[in-house]
Amino acid sequence: MRQNNFAGGNLTGPNAKIAFLHLHKTGGTSFDAFLRRILPTHRFAPRDGAGKIDPAALDAGYDAYSGHYRAADMASLPTDLIKVTILREPTERLLSHYYFHKSYRVENIARFGRPLLLKTKTSSLGLLLEDAEYVDFYSRFYVKALDPDYRGHGKPSLERALDFLSGFDAIGVTSRLQTLMAQVAARLGASLPGDAPMLNSRKALEDLDGFEKAAIEPLTAAQLARIEDIVGEDRILYDFALTRAM
Questions:
Q1: What is the pTM (predicted TM-score) of this model?
Q2: 111-128 tens-digit pLDDT
Q3: DSSP secondary structure letter of residue 101
Q4: 145 Cβ contact list (under 8 Å, min separation 6)
């Protein structure tokens, strides 16, 4: 597969600016930590404890935007940015998201006030795969996240998401995260840290306050097929990402 197609050849060196769109459970926390090791802290737009960038900061002229924000927000950012995102194999991503929520302690869930989290905590994955609310949350996850006009049109569009994704300068996949780190470090004129972080793994979560170990549930062939139905269009976007990742 070919190397990431870095568009805009002038966006290089230690003064280059970067926008990293962090999609949930794709290795983005590790990539963000990597960026913050090679770039000064003052260059980053502020974000909250959940990693969401303050909307007021999106057009404030920062040099680095790394965190959770909407695809539509990219239009508010400066144009002279290296745009980067990461996609994970869709079934792996869905299961990782499920076990991330499943690992929350009940008392931690109460702080968020989200009934869906409590439903995740108290139900098996098999039951949730037949729950309309849960399925709606996970269906077309990448399509919803990468369609900048989703909320304006009410229905997510794979075509718009694919067009948006194709405009990124570098698209990584989770299984090759260190390769993406090396590419971006070189583009920014920095050295790849020898101890590039790998954060938010399932094992690491078990040691964090508010989390606990969640047992892995065996999946039947029917459940795996159900998951494939849910992530079907997301797989098209992931397959495109594979063509852009080394």
A1: 0.89
A2: 888 899 999 999 999 999
A3: H
A4: 23, 71, 161
